[in-house]
């Protein structure tokens, strides 16, 4: 090959990269991070084989339980997803900083837990954007990887969230912890209900959640003892 040929190769490479960049640019609104894109599929599993499970906590941060939950997760070396209300982020910025500093993953759960099932994409986008802005005021640059619709009332939120780079995040197991049925009952429901790859819905906010934190504290070592591994939900559907 001639010297001239050698020179041309990087040029072609650049051109190819440019084309790749342009094609990605077309879908840039769905860009969710290095090498990843969000899509409108509601993720409800870890996407990993074997005994894997992902814990997700909604409606915080909450002055009562979030801090204790973070202690439990930190001691047990478990990473989890926190689906935050923008309003609660404003009230408890230090807890949000702690969530991020301790390696957990953020999820947009709207400003005030709005039911968006009948909202237009424009209305949804405005709320989700405002929520992300509130979060980024507190933790600038932090990745907000997921979106979860309050009440599971998805409406048109999955397409809007995906377009904003957030993967819609559902769940496979809910133990209805908001009813506070007792820690023993919650432990039993978790132990019986978790299946391979489950995303588990729990709550650290929206009310008093001491039972949830106690149940999580008891369940983590038991599940590990049975060979379960704690991980995060799949990044895309
Ligand atoms: Zn919620």
Automatic annotation (TrEMBL):
It comes from the Bacteria. Keywords: Hydrolase, Metal-binding, Signal. CDD domains: CE4_NodB_like_6s_7s (cd10917). Pfam families: Polysacc_deac_1 (PF01522). The keyword Phosphoprotein does not apply. GO terms for molecular function: hydrolase activity, acting on carbon-nitrogen (but not peptide) bonds; metal ion binding. Residues 51-231 form the NodB homology domain. GO terms for biological process: carbohydrate metabolic process. GO terms for cellular component: membrane. The keyword Kinase does not apply. Residues 1-32 form the signal peptide. This is Peptidoglycan/xylan/chitin deacetylase, PgdA/CDA1 family. The lineage of its organism: Bacteria, Bacillati, Actinomycetota, Actinomycetes, Actinopolysporales.
């Amino acid at each position: 090959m001639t010297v001239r040929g050698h020179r041309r190769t990087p040029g072609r490479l650049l051109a190819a990269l440019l084309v790749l960049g342009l094609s990605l640019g077309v879908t840039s609104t769905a860009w969710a991070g290095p090498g990843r894109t969000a899509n409108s599929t509601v993720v409800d599993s870890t996407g990993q084989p074997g005994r894997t499970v992902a814990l997700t906590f909604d409606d915080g941060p909450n002055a009562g339980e979030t801090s204790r939950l973070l202690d439990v997760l930190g001691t047990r070396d478990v990473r989890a997803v926190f689906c935050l209300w923008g309003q609660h982020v404003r009230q408890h910025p230090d807890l949000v900083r702690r969530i991020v500093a301790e390696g957990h993953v953020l999820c947009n759960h709207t400003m005030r837990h709005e039911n968006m099932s009948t909202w237009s994409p424009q209305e949804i986008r405005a709320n989700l954007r405002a929520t992300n802005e509130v979060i980024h005021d507190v933790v600038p640059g932090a990745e907000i990887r997921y979106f979860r619709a309050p009440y599971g009332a998805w409406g048109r939120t999955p397409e809007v969230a995906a377009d904003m780079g957030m993967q819609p995040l559902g769940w496979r197991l809910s133990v209805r912890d908001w009813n506070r049925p007792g820690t023993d009952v919650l432990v039993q429901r978790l132990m019986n209900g978790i299946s391979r790859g489950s995303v588990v819905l729990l709550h650290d906010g929206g009310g008093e959640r001491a039972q949830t934190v106690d149940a999580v504290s008891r369940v983590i070592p038991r599940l590990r003892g049975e060979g379960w591994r704690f991980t995060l939900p799949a990044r895309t559907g």
